[in-house]
Design brief:
Layout: H1 5-18, H2 23-36, H3 41-54, H4 59-71, H5 75-88, H6 93-103
Helix pairs in contact: 1-2, 2-3, 3-4, 4-5, 5-6
Length: 107
């Protein structure tokens, strides 16, 4: 993404508006919000939730949101979204390990 965060934001929002199923646009915009803007970290959560609402059967967005919650030390929410992602992708061993790790409260 561009180092011009406001322009990056506009571009990704336009991409989402034009193609709501574009998982990459949600992911990239969440990254801009979390790491690019000092005062827009909360927007990362909001855009991922919006992406999930628009794409409820997409495990990738739920994984991204779970990882975001884990970085924010919101373990219960992280577990919830890892579990939801796992329910959509039962063969994903990495997700199973994430769920087991959070259920056992390991670091």
């Amino acid at each position: 993404y561009l180092k011009d965060y406001p322009q990056s934001e506009r571009n990704f929002l336009a991409a989402i508006n034009n193609s709501p199923e574009s998982i990459n646009a949600y992911s990239q915009l969440a990254t801009v919000y979390e790491y690019g803007y000092n005062n827009k970290t909360q927007e990362a959560e909001n855009i991922l939730l919006f992406g999930i609402k628009s794409n409820p059967k997409n495990a990738a967005l739920k994984i991204l949101l779970a990882q975001y919650y884990e970085r924010q030390d919101k373990k219960a929410l992280a577990l919830k979204y890892f579990e939801e992602a796992l329910s959509l992708d039962l063969t994903n061993q990495s997700l199973k390990r994430d769920v087991d790790r959070l259920r056992s409260n390991e670091p």
